[in-house]
Each structure stands twice: as structure tokens, then as C-alpha cells.
Design a protein that fits this description.
- The chain is α+β, with helices and mostly antiparallel strands.
- The protein has twelve helices and 15 strands.
- The protein has an eight-stranded mixed β-sheet. The chain has a seven-stranded mixed β-sheet with strand order 10-9-13-12-11-14-15, with helices on one face.
- Strand 9 and strand 10 form a beta hairpin.
- Helix 3 runs antiparallel to helix 4, helix 4 runs antiparallel to helix 5 and helix 9 packs parallel to helix 12.
- The longest helix is centred in the middle third of the chain and has 28 residues.
Length: 374
């Protein structure tokens, strides 16, 4: 489905666009079938950076929504849905750009295969969507097979499916990057750059792509806003200094990352409720026991909200290294700083405090440490 084009574990840009002046927009969504007593829901962020969900009733063959924006705003559309959470719109919503002018969406029974146009940004969005038809045609079958293999616990087929997915993702990324390179002045390109990378972990690549955009787009309100976000986001790429932080250990004592300077430290993000984390704990323990006498240690950073559950698993899994706990979940400030969008996730940091490697698991962790201490 077309809506997969701009979906990420987290959005990096809430309103992207070029330098148009403030103006009115009219969003018209025409449907192929009558939608009496149904509503169009449009979720977007206004000029005060406030999230809003606007609605329009079905009348005379279309939904019509009118508003005013200072510059391009990305939005997501749903029809006849009562769920208005950000995650729901991100997964099921159809993207459209709100900008000055008459925006036209031609839909069938649903919005999944709708075509957007009428204004420059939406014409370019549709151009990108058309170039990705090979991927959107593949995706429904992938989801169906994924569900089948998961229900049947067919892990071998699941592994092959993951390999196929990774291959398709790489092909899609090539097409998307070609679009960006061919449309350096397009708001769609800026939006894609903002949404398609983990900024903290891929900052150098993001800066390179952003630098390839036109000066006009970079100097626009959205361009400057994204540039400010890049400036404020520290890089956690290999070779960069690991951002400093401090958090409480099991006794309530503040422990800082800098306390481990002079040793190799594995900063390990995990949680008691994370099955893959607990499956990886024995590998971390094995590496810790083997290399702890050679200048290596582990600093566990828990995403738990319950101290009781956190400490219960620390004891149950026999993790003897220093453990600290943050504010809980993926919205914790340290978790965001390190660009952690899923766990387990770890960073190997050298004695000078620089990041050596990211997400070492299983045999890769032990081999990397073996090479260091050989």
C-alpha cells in the first residue's frame, strides 16, 4: 500500500515544506463509492506545533476540508475510523501534503490506493508512490505470509522471509534515494530525508543528503527547522564520543558513563519485559566473565518502569555488572539520545569514551572482544 512510503518507528519532522507564503488550502477527497454517514479524519501539526485531527463529512460525492497553513504540512488521512492516535495514523493513514491551493485525492472504496495531486508537493508525492509500485504490490503478500508462518511457528520460512524483506527494502531505498537526488528542491525529498533515517545513528548520511537539497529549500521554514534538529542531535556513529549521562543504580546511587573511562564498556539497553533481551543476556554474561579481568565491563541501562520487575530479572538472569534505570520506555532522554528504537541494543565504548561498535550480539560480541584483547 502506498501509505508505507513514509512510515517510521518515530517521525523526525512534523511539518516539512518549501518557502511558500501563508495561504488557504482546500482538500477534496473524491470516492468511487458513496460514503454516507462516514467521516474523513486528517491528522497534522499546525503552525503552533499543536497536533490536531480535523474531520469532514461526506457530501455530494466527496469529503472537503478547508484550512490555512504558513508552509507545507504533512498529514495523514483515514476514513470512518474512530482511533486517532499517532501510531494508528502512522500505520494505516494515507499521506498527503497540506499546502496553499486545491489538493485533490481520488480514492476508490478506501484510501489505500488513492492518488494524490492538485498541488506541486502532492504531484511529486504521487510520482514517488508510482515509482514504488513494485514494493507496494509485494507488501500485502509479505504480510499474509508473515502471519501464516508466525501462526504455524515455521521459523525456517520466517528466516527466509526476513531475507526477502531486507532485499526488497534495499531496492526500495535505491528508488527513493534516486527520487531525492532527482528532486533536490522538492518538499517530498526533505520529508523523506527527515523520516527515513535514525538521525543519531546515521547523522553523517543525513547531513550529506540534506546538503544536496537546494538552498531555497534548506532556507525555508521547514528546512531551517530540520537543520536545527540536526544541530541539536549528537551523533552516536562509530568513532564519535559517546554522549555522557548519569542514572540511578539499584541502590539509588547516581552512576555516570564517565565513571567507566579507562575501560572498554558495553552500554547495554534492555528491559525485563523484552524476550530477545533476556535471550541475549547469557551471551553478554559469557563475554563479561571471559574479559572482565582484561579491562572490559558492562553497563546495563533498563527501559523498565517497574523497579521491582527490573531487579527481579537482574537477579534471575545473574547479571553481576552495574545496572542503572532510566525514566522508562523509548521516550527516556538517554534512550532518545542514543537513537534506540528497539531493544536489545548496545554500544561498545573504548577507554577514551569513543564508540567502537553498535549492536554486537552473540558470537559477534565475543569475536570483537577477542580481537581487542588478543
Amino acid at each position: 500500500m502506498k501509505k508505507a512510503v513514509f512510515i517510521l518507528i518515530g517521525a523526525l519532522c512534523v511539518g516539512c515544506g518549501g518557502g511558500r507564503q501563508e495561504g488557504n488550502f482546500t482538500l477534496t477527497v473524491r470516492t468511487g463509492e458513496p460514503r454516507e454517514r462516514e467521516r474523513l479524519y486528517v491528522r497534522w501539526v499546525d503552525d503552533r506545533d499543536s497536533v490536531r485531527v480535523d474531520t469532514a463529512e461526506y457530501r455530494e460525492g466527496a469529503f472537503v476540508l478547508r484550512g490555512r497553513v504558513s508552509h507545507f504540512r504533512r498529514a495523514a488521512m483515514l476514513v470512518n475510523e474512530g482511533i486517532t492516535s499517532a501510531d494508528y495514523f502512522a500505520v494505516f493513514g494515507t499521506p498527503v501534503f497540506l499546502e496553499e491551493g486545491d489538493i485533490l485525492v481520488e480514492a476508490g472504496r478506501g484510501l489505500a490506493d488513492a492518488r494524490v495531486g492538485g498541488t506541486s508537493a502532492n504531484e511529486e508525492l504521487q510520482e514517488l508512490n508510482d515509482s514504488l509500485r513494485f514494493y507496494t504490490a509485494w507488501e500485502p503478500g509479505y504480510r499474509e505470509r508473515f502471519g501464516k508462518y508466525y501462526r504455524e511457528r515455521d521459523w525456517e520460512s520466517m528466516g527466509a522471509l526476513r531475507t526477502e524483506r531486507d532485499s526488497m527494502e534495499r531496492k526500495r531505498r535505491v528508488v527513493e534515494q534516486a527520487f531525492v537526488e532527482g528532486h533536490p528542491g522538492s518538499v517530498v525529498s526533505l520529508d523523506w530525508i527527515a523520516r527515513s533515517f535514525n538521525l543519531a545513528r546515521q547523522k553523517s548520511r543525513v547531513e550529506e543528503l540534506y546538503g544536496g537539497l537546494t538552498e531555497e529549500l534548506r532556507r525555508s521554514a521547514a528546512g531551517r527547522k530540520f537543520a536545527a534538529r540536526m544541530e541539536a542531535t549528537p551523533s552516536v556513529e562509530v568513532g564519535q564520543p559517546a554522549p555522557e549521562f548519569a542514572a540511578e543504580d539499584k541502590d539509588g546511587k547516581r552512576v555516570a558513563l564517565g565513571d567507566f573511562r579507562g575501560r572498554y564498556v558495553l552500554l547495554d539497553f534492555w528491559a525485563s519485559w523484552c524476550g530477545p533481551c533476556r535471550a541475549e543476556n547469557p551471551n553478554v554474561l559469557k563475554a563479561y566473565e571471559r574479559f572482565k579481568g582484561k579491562g572490559f565491563t558492562v553497563l546495563g541501562y533498563s527501559l523498565d518502569e517497574s523497579r521491582e520487575k527490573w531487579l527481579g530479572v537482574v537477579e534471575a538472569d545473574g547479571m553481576p555488572w552495574t545496572q542503572v534505570i532510566g525514566g522508562g520506555g523509548l521516550n527516556d532522554s538517554v534512550v532518545r539520545t542514543y537513537g534506540v528504537t528497539g531493544i536489545p541494543s548496545n554500544f561498545l565504548i573504548d577507554p577514551e569514551g569513543r564508540i567502537m561498535a553498535v549492536d554486537l550480539r552473540g558470537e559477534r560480541l565475543e569475536k570483537t572482544l577477542s580481537d581487542i584483547f588478543k
